[in-house]
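Summary for the lay section of the report: proteins are chains of building blocks that fold into shapes. Here we show the chain for Arginine deiminase and then a coded description of the shape we predicted for it.
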Amino acid sequence: MPIHVKSEIGTLKRVMLHRPGQELEHLVPGELERLLFDDIPYLRAARQEHDVFAGILREQGVEVVYLEDLMAGTLKGRPQLRERFIRQFIEEGGNIAQKFKDQLFRLLDGIEDERELVQKTMAGVRMNELKAGGHSPLADRVRPDSRFILDPIPNLYFTRDPFASIGCGVSLNYMYSRTRRRETIYGSYILEEHPDFAGSTPFYYRRDYPFSIEGGDILNLSRRVLAVGISQRTTPEAIELLAQNIFGDDTAEIETILAFDIPSIRAYMHLDTVMTQIDYDKFTVHPGILGSLRVYEICRGDHRDTLNVTELDSSLPVILGTHLGLDQVTMIRCGGKDRVASEREQWNDGSNTLCIAPGKVVVYDRNYITNGILRENGVEVLEMPSSELSRGRGGPRCMSMPLWREDV
Ligand SMILES: NC(=[NH2+])NCCC[C@H](N)C(=O)O
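The coded shape description reads as follows.
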């Protein structure tokens, strides 16, 4: 089995990352909001930070695989698949891409090396790269060279979101924003065509389903319990479909899905932006969600495809404790008691820790107050530099997709 993730904390053995590329250099001020960035990271420094991240993981015995390499490996030596990929990519690239689809195809197909081809699809294609001319004489004058024929995909370094490992299967997601939808094309080719994955991975969600769901909302609490955020990105309808598919798969061990209804705002974005598990009995949490959080328990219904849903009325630590079989669960507040620190560190993903073994996490160095509190609670904290990567509003958990964790 190529995927095996039955907890949030089991020793991490294999993880998928994406090293930020040219797509970040294609961010421009007028497009930041649409492309879900708050600033333009300095690519060189962002890559250095990312390499430190990968280095920390390797030092801890984790095998790091890169999205771009898996994708290139999928296409290698398969001209028909390669052609299908390019055509699909252009097809889903929006209206302007349709207008220039033949030129785009020639440009992309002309890139021989698979890895370079994949990186080019990520980076986007500008008007002045096409030798065309004359097709949009008015638009060309109004919006010259800087215009993108194929948009860049700058959020790719958040590999957590387009697909999510659940047990031995995956949820291949339908993304909330148009700007992130093509990210899941890579996942679909890798999972369906790469020799290491093809044929052995059950899908619990598919990218052509109509309701949005993103990996940052999916937490593997234990082999039997999955937590999913209802958020800006993930709809309750998507969670119902996910639940039906999981419960319909006899090989899946999950018996309960907890749906956490978190406020639908950008600062909270995904469940993992406000809560992550860091040890058997410890979680980080943004205090902002504690008051108003509603939690629903979803189990198999009495008939095929039906679901039983109950609203739980206990507090968050009690709910987590009950479902993990623990007497007590410690919730560590991001930023501690200081409200300013807690809002600031939450904004910079202080709660978004990547747990690589029980009680051992990778975090951003800039969230020094939260990191100090984690240490006081006996957690081993491995810090990575974070000036540039944090500008994309995601932390170490968002930047990693575990493929294999040891069982706990
Ligand atoms: N799992 C996460 N929290 N991912 C963070 C993704 C950040 C990205 N800029 C977005 O808005 O989609």
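Put simply, here is one thing we learned. The radius of gyration is 21 Å.
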